[in-house]
Design goal:
single chain, alpha/beta, eight-stranded parallel β-barrel, three-stranded antiparallel β-sheet, 15 helices, 16 strands, globular
């Protein structure tokens, strides 16, 4: 079995969709937020806790797992690769490592063959080609693998984006040719920066390769949110309706709501776990910095009515104490809350779409939410 997608409902007033992504490791209701397990672990949270808080699919990072412990070691863990290695029996998506490689400014060199780069860990030299990335992702054995692409920075000139898009398209064809895993589906990635004609061109080139799903890359890299939304508006009528769309690296609640409104099915981001480690938690009104002094004697939960483990059992005052005392439980509780919040936000959005009330849901979200 490989990945398939069934579109169940489309909202009449927006581009919002509800569907089901079927994978070898289970079905994923969409739209969905995917927690990021960079090094085969979602930071501070166990696989059991991920299931309990509502995560349906998680990510692994090809670049980091290649460098440490090595994809060969992951493959030795069992026939199910990363699933066996990290004890997660649900669906997994692995990125290509492209974003990480292209973030190594000054430590990498791009050629038509691929990208030469130096490890951020020990300075050792490596070469990622489309064929090498497919070898790594096959060994990791995720349900969904992403093509190796070149992500343009923001801002980037037109000529720079054209060159990066050329690599992305040609590398996608090489990835497709090299991809051999029988139970793994390969998704293409649409690039094009903030240029409308380049986004359309990239989308059409990816569609010509007929991937089972499409990532939308090169967004949430510093551009204004309205610019990102404009690109999504451009892509919605172009990308095939019957295949999933994955907006890469986006995870703030407002962007999830607005992304769904523009036809996106899948999202991922390190944001909820990263800000949790700084004592910031997500709530319907936006965010709350629970480590602040004003919460030292606040006996309420992080969020009234929230069903997460942290909110069911502990007060803001206690969690603040843990954070100030550098107790690991503090960041575990804030992380659990943030992931629960986003996973359940997506479940609520999905229900609203299925019941034909997404517009009202979106309006109510913005009535409460303050950026």
């Amino acid at each position: 079995m490989t990945v398939s997608f069934t579109l169940q409902y489309k909202d009449d007033a927006t581009f919002a969709r509800a569907g089901t992504l079927r994978t070898p490791h289970g079905d994923v209701p969409t739209p969905v937020f995917m927690p990021v397990g960079t090094c085969a672990s979602v930071k501070t949270v166990s696989p059991l806790e991920l299931k309990e808080l509502g995560a349906a699919i998680i990510l692994g990072n090809t670049y980091h797992l290649y460098l440490r412990p090595g994809h060969d070691i992951v493959a030795e863990a069992g026939s199910d690769g990363l699933h066996d290695f990290m004890g997660w029996d649900g669906p997994i998506l692995t990125d290509s490592g492209g974003f990480q490689v292209f973030s190594l400014s000054g430590l990498r060199r791009v050629t038509e063959e691929g990208v030469e780069f130096r490890s951020h860990i020990d300075g050792s030299s490596h070469l990622f080609t489309p064929e090498k990335v497919m070898e790594i992702e096959a060994a990791l054995g995720a349900d969904i693998a992403m093509c190796f692409d070149e992500c343009s920075p923001y801002p980037a000139g037109h000529a720079q984006v054209v060159q990066a898009d050329g690599h992305t398209s040609r590398w996608a064809a090489r990835c497709q040719k090299a991809h051999r895993h029988p139970y793994q589906s390969l998704f293409g990635i649409v690039q094009g920066g903030v240029y409308e004609e380049l986004r359309k061109k990239s989308a059409k080139e990816m569609m010509a390769l007929d991937f089972p799903g499409y990532g939308i890359g090169g967004l949430s890299v510093g551009e204004p949110k309205n610019t990102m939304y404009g690109i999504l508006d451009i892509l919605h009528p172009i990308l095939p309706e019957h295949k999933p769309r994955y907006l890469m690296g986006v995870g703030s609640p407002d962007c999830l709501v607005e992304g769904v409104a523009r036809g996106v099915d899948m999202f991922d981001c390190v944001l909820p776990t990263r800000i949790a480690r700084n004592g910031t938690v997500m709530v319907p009104e936006g965010k709350l910095v629970v480590r602040n002094a004003e919460y030292a004697r606040d006996w309420r939960p992080i969020q009234e009515g929230c069903g997460c483990y942290a909110c069911r059992n502990f007060s803001r005052a206690y969690i603040r104490h843990l954070l100030k005392a550098s107790e690991v439980l503090g960041i575990r509780l804030t992380t659990i809350h943030n992931l629960y919040y986003l996973c359940h936000l997506m479940a609520d959005i999905r229900l609203a779409v299925l019941e034909g009330r997404f517009t009202a849901f979106r309006r109510e979200f913005w009535r409460r939410y303050k950026i």
